[in-house]
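User: Hey, quick favor. My workstation is busy. Could you predict this chain's structure for me?
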Amino acid sequence: MDARQIIEAVRDGKDPSQAELNWFANGLASGNVTDAQAGAFAMAVLLKGLSEEGRVALTLAMRDSGDVLSWNLGKPVVDKHSTGGIGDSVSLLLAPMLAAVDVPVPMISGRGLGHTGGTLDKLEAISGIQTDVTENRFRQIMDTVGCAIVSASRAMAPADKRLYAIRDVTGTVPSVDLITASILSKKLAAGLDGLILDVKCGSGAFMETEDDARALAKALVTTANGAGCKTAALITDMSQPLAPAAGNALEIAEVMKGLTNPKNSRLVDLSLALGAELMVLAGYDTAPEVAAVKLRDALTDGSAAAKFDALVIALGGPEGFCEGWAGRLPEANVIRDIEAPETGVIAALNGYQIGMGVVHMGGGRMRGGDRIDPSVGYSDILPIGAEVRAGDPVARLHAASEKAAQAAERAFLQALTIGETAKAPPLLIDRVG
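Assistant: No problem, here it is.
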């Protein structure tokens, strides 16, 4: 086969065959397809698009470019994927909740991307934890704990790793077809039977408008179902941080509050909603309302916290973390309140600016390979609709130095809008699938 013919077909608005896409994906993985050809392919897909069948074929080709796991647990295995946001630590709450009700979750997660935090970076804020594990260790953790949160091996979906890096430098990241294939090739390589997608929209999301989020959700759901994995999506609000914290250790603290002292919050409510949809999707329950009760019981009776403790130990962390978590997370050198500049109501919180404030403090990566400071970020962030007086705290910043604290405070205040009235959008906007 010839890479040029495949590129020309896409350029002319035609779908390559499954065999051609398999060949192209294997060429990406092996290096037989050059960077120039990969970039041309990505640009052709961005400009011309693929049909639904073509999107499924590309996803399967990228999935099959490396190892594909299979599970023999006697029950469906499931996972959840978020398109990214601020204060979004749902995975760390949801995986142990599901494991506590005997739903296995082999979760392959990622690191921070752009202004959004990564599940693995957050988890590694706990001393000793290592998320890079062998496949054998991955399976051992699943057998003993019932859930695992680990990084993808280099042998899983290698075509995606190569193509993603090229998309990043060729201006082709925004393609819905390529985003869909990238997300799902990695998830489907985990051998899933069911997948719930959290597609976010708002200032802290990659898809800022509902229309864009809905288009991505439909592409993801139809493609995943076409590839043989039962999938649905919830479109959720990211016009403000999901939890009142942004930063790795600070978000772990919010997860611990949810596990050890569960109360209604945006983080807990969304975790329950996603988990309930997933349990129905995979055939564990017949109605989301029934499943949600089981998951909430796992929080209130301590069984979800016990699963989290077991996972922490399995990944090399300390014993009994949930009991003494408050004294075990790293703390920043400078901790102080950010004060409201005027009296009124919090009308908007720009999630992108808040996320980049954390990145510039050292809580994210400006370049690949940068080391992360897990202690920095913002906590105690007031929600949209909160009334404040001038001088009241609107958030607390955690920085490594006074200079970094001053810059972080300016960044947060630029993200903050105080007005006369405000109404937060609903957390759950729509369901697709």
